[in-house]
């Protein structure tokens, strides 16, 4: 399953995954009524990561600003 997700977005870096899973966790905490069911969790993660990857590709300056000062 992870290989299919990684392939669909041409590979995922550890930095990207850490950042997106942190965002995902925060979103899920803030939106408990919208938690995905166990059956839909893989779909939720795949859609989240694919959208985030596409957003990063389309708007690279946003990612650079977010990570420029972080070490």
Please describe what this structure looks like.
1% of the residues are buried. Helix 2 packs across helix 3 (41-58) and helix 3 packs across helix 4. This protein has helices at residues 2-8, 14-30, 41-58, 60-68. The protein is mainly α and 71 residues long.
Q: What's the layout of helices and strands?
A:
Elements: H1 2-8, H2 14-30, H3 41-58, H4 60-68
Helix pairs in contact: 2-3, 3-4
Rg result: 13 Å
Which oligomerization state do the chains in this entry correspond to?
A: single chain
Percent range for β-strand residues: under 5%
Global shape? globular
Q: Between the first and last Cα atoms, what is the distance in angstroms? A: 31 Å
The beta-strand count equals 0
Largest sheet properties: none
Mean pLDDT, to the nearest integer, reads 80
Elements, N to C (H/E)? HHHH
Number of helices: 4
| Structure class | mainly alpha
Q: What low-confidence regions span 5 or more consecutive residues with pLDDT below 50?
A: none
Helix content range: over 70%
Which descriptors apply to this entry?
71 residues; 72% helix; 0% strand
């Amino acid at each position: 399953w992870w290989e299919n997700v990684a392939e669909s977005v041409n590979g995922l870096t550890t930095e990207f995954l850490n950042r997106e899973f942190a965002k995902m966790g925060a979103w899920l905490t803030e939106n408990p009524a919208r938690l995905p069911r166990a059956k839909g969790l893989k779909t939720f993660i795949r859609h989240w990561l694919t959208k985030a990857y596409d957003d990063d590709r389309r708007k690279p300056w946003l990612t650079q600003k977010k990570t420029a000062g972080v070490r």
